[in-house]
Amino acid sequence: MSPKAIGEGMSPVDVSYKNFDPRHITQADDAAILKTDTAYRAATFIETYTGRAFWPLQPTMDALSVIDIAHALANQCRYSGHVQFFYSVAQHCCLLAAWLANHGGSALDCLQILMHDAPEAYLVDIPRPVKQYMPQYRVWDHAINDVIREWMGWKDLPMLAIQDELDSRIIVDERAALMSRSGLDWGHHLELIGIKIEPWSPADAEKQFLMMYAAYSKEVYGSYQYINYSWGLPVNVFHQTNSDTRKSLDVLEVDVKGHVGRVRLHDDEGIVVRDTTGGTFPRPQWKWVHGNFEIMERAA
Q1: Cα(204)–Cα(92) distance, rounded to whole angstroms?
Q2: Are 79 and 179 in contact (CB under 8 A)?
Q3: Please, what is the Cα angle at 232 between 229 and 237, to 5 degrees?
Q4: Does the structure show a pLDDT above 80 at 42?
Q5: How high does pLDDT run on average in the chain?
Q6: Which of 25, 65, 201, 274 could bridge across to 282 with cysteines, CB 3.0–4.6 Å?
Q7: Whole-prediction pTM
Q8: What domains appear along the chain, each with residue ranges and CATH number?
């Protein structure tokens, strides 16, 4: 069979997972879910960057965080890594949001397109030539996207009309900047957008993604949804504990909607605990704290 013929005439598969809960898979279920030549068992959840369990096949809003999304997308390279320099999914999202902002898009429009690949933080980026023959993947992708859109308050909001067009047209820009000059026909005959693509490190892409999320979400929701201490914002951050105690924390970053923050560790005397193995300037040690956060702007 020729490569071109692969996938043609494939019979549809059952992609109904309404009653499927991966948290309760039994050993006997394995063969029915995935037939492999090697017995394979693993946890059915992903441990996220902020230390949460996320079930990709049974997503819930309480496991989401923009910190996880930005970090994971920044560490994933598009085009299966076959590029001239590292180019992350996060950078791809940021460039589209920036283009839309410069061409009359509202803050809500820009926030939607910034988050359009957010499910890939949990499912990873699959190349289009493969994804088109993966109906289960597309079902899972849509399910996670629906949960993310509900989490963002967009459950009843139509998808951004121009999103699919921009997401396809930027491929022309990306190919010109990132790929070989092979001349191979991708079957993709659209006009480029005109976006300049330069190398960003994963750390740069993550930072830019979070900065854009912070700016757009504050305009859309009217209050801070994400902050980072390095921005020097005039705010106080409070954490609501399980005992309903409201206390101030030495915060490094906070995702309000995701109910998680990164805070500095202090000893019993209130001194910042530092990692002395890190060189001339020991860095403060930190941990993730989960719960409800409130960001209050200080009076000028």
Answers
A1: 13
A2: yes
A3: 50
A4: no
A5: 87
A6: 274
A7: 0.85
A8: 34-208 (1.10.3210.10), 224-297 (no CATH)
